[in-house]
Structures are given as structure tokens and as C-alpha cells.
Amino acid sequence: MQQLLIIKTGSSAPTLDPSYGDFEDWISEHFNGSDLSVRVSRVDLGAELPEVSEIAGAIVTGSAAMVTERLEWSERTATWLAAAVQAKLPILGICYGHQLLAHGLGGSVDHNPNGREIGTVTVRLTDAALSDPLLRQLPSEIDVQETHVESVAELPAGSILLATSDRDPHQAFRIGANAWGLQFHPEFTAKIIRGYLEARREIIIGEGIDVDQLIEETRDTNFGGEILRRFVEIVQEHAPD
Predict the structure, then answer these.
(1) How far is CA 236 from the centre of its chain?
(2) What is the pLDDT of residue 35?
(3) Terminus of the chain with fewer CB atoms < 10 Å: N or C?
């Protein structure tokens, strides 16, 4: 059975109800019916990464860490990602993983000059997304769940921009044939993002953001699940027999 690696770069908000699960649980929910097994590598706790040839694809999770901190485990993972892209391994970077992928391939990451982006956000797909293997089945605007304060300031050379939002011009990109970064969380539900809003309530209020309004505006969306299931299909299509 082929393995799909989840590179876990941190855990979800610690105040979330433990029954919610964590990043790898929410991601894996969309693998039902595939012939892939899941392997989790907790790199932020020192876990080693496998040889690229040992796995069929990789998903990099979100994290409470910041790419700009240049932590040892993060830089090591960025180097691994660059080699994996070179080897044409299917890769999906989510939030922190999106930023780390961009950083590892020569782009830049910084604090978002437009401030924190959190809640249910409308993302606009670019014309390039119409023919993109991962996103082409989606409409031109999709609602997704977001929580981040850092962003990709500059995409790596050769990247294709796939999506934007009002607060972040680099919501999604592809580099190479089958490596993608998504600033949003396709694995999050409305319940999860409400938990994040409550967990960070005081910080967000201190930034002048109306938390209660964001909670009221939070809504479920199926687009994230569609993207994850399509990525699994891509992994299976590229996996050797």
C-alpha cells in the first residue's frame, strides 16, 4: 500500500475540545475510499523525514510557529520540500506548510501587512486555476477557513498564482507539475474555526477586530474537502504501480 506522508509542523489551538481531533485527523477524513495509508511525521518534535522515494505524496500542516523564526526543524523541512519538488513528488502545503514551501523554494515570507486573516474568507481563483489539476473543478470564488498572521510576501520564481483574497494576494500557488501551497485550511470546518476565534478572542479584540461578528459570519463550506479529495486522486495517479 502506498503511503501519504503528513508532515505535522505543530498542533491545533490547545483550547479546542480534544474530541475535535487535530490536523492529521481532519485531513485524513477525506482519504476514505483511497488505497493510501497515512504516515505522520511530527517534525516540530524532532521526527525525521523519510526518503522521497519511500512515499507517494506529502501534506504539510499548519502550525502556531512562524516561518520567519527560522527554527531548525522548519529549515530542515524546507530543504526536504525543495528536494521533493525537484523529484516531482505530489505536495500540498497548508497555511504554515504553504509558507514553508514558498520559503524553501526561494520565495519570501513576512507578517501580512494587511493584518490577521481569520474566519470564513472568500477566495478568488485566477484564470490559471481554470486549467490547474488541483483547482480546476472549483467555481471562480470559494469560501474557505483561514487563520494566519504571516503570509507569502513573494512567490518563488516560476510559480503560478492560483488564488487571491482581499487581505492576501497569494492564497494559492503551484510550482512545478504537482506541488501546491494553500494559505487557507481546506481541512477546517466552521466549528473548528469558531474554536480558533474563541481561543484567540482577546488577542483579536486587541487588534480591533470584532470577534463576535466573525463568529456570526462563519459558515461551513465543502470546497476544502473537494480540494483534499482531489489531491489524493493526484497522488494515486502519480504513484508507481
Answers:
(1) 19
(2) 85
(3) C
Is 117 tagged catalytic?
Answer: no
Could you report the per-residue pLDDT of 181-202, keeping only the tens digit for each?
999 999 999 999 999 999 999 9
Please determine, looking at this structure, whether the domain spanning 2-188+222-238 carries the CATH number 3.40.50.880: yes
**Active site includes 150?**
no
Secondary structure, 3-state, 113-144: CCCCEEEEEEEEECHHHHHCCCCCCCCCEEEE
- Residue 98 among the catalytic residues: no
Of the residues 24, 30, 95, 150, only one is catalytic, namely: 95
